[in-house]
Amino acid sequence: MYLHVGEGILVRTRDIITILDKDSAKSSPYLEEFVQFRKDDVINLSRGEFKSIVITNDKVYYSPLASGTLKKRSQKLSIQEF
C-alpha cells in the first residue's frame, strides 16, 4: 500500500523506516548528522515549516502533515489491506 505524505507524493508503506515529529527531529544531533549525510536525498514537501520527517530506504521527506496524521493514515491502510 501507499501513504500520502504531502504535495501529491505517495510513498510505499513497506519502504518507510520511520516517521518522526518535528520536535524530536530538531532535538536530536544524530538525526541532524544523518540528514546532512543524506542531504542529496532530502525532499522538502512543505511550503513553510515542516511538521514531520518521513525516512524511507531512498529518500528523506520533510512533510507538511503531522506525524500523528501520517500514523493514522498508515493504520487505516494496513487494515484495508486485509
Give the helices and strands, then pairings.
Blueprint: E1 2-6, E2 9-12, E3 16-21, H1 22-26, H2 29-37, E4 42-44, E5 52-56, E6 60-63, H3 67-81
Parallel strand pairs: 4-6
Antiparallel strand pairs: 1-2, 3-5, 5-6
Description:
The chain has 82 residues and is α+β, with helices and mostly antiparallel strands. It has one domain (2-73). Helix content is 35%, strand content 33%. It has helices at 22-26, 29-37, 67-81, and strands spanning 2-6, 9-12, 16-21, 42-44, 52-56, 60-63. The radius of gyration is 12 Å and the shape is globular.
User: Structurally, how many domains make up the residues?
Assistant: 1
> What is the total tally of β strands?
6
The portion of residues assigned to helices is 25-40%
User: What form results from the Cα inertia axes?
Assistant: globular
| Contiguous runs where pLDDT drops below 50 for at least 5 residues | none
Mean pLDDT: 90
End-to-end Cα distance: 11 Å
Residues in β-strands, percent: 25-35%
Q: If strands are numbered along the chain, what order do they take across the biggest sheet?
A: 3-5-6-4
Provide the succession of SSEs: EEEHHEEEH
Question: What gyration radius follows from the Cα positions, in whole Å?
Answer: 12 Å
The DSSP helix count reads 3
Biggest sheet statistics: 4 strands, mixed
Class per helix and strand makeup: alpha+beta
Please summarize what this structure is.
With 82 residues, this protein is of the alpha+beta class.
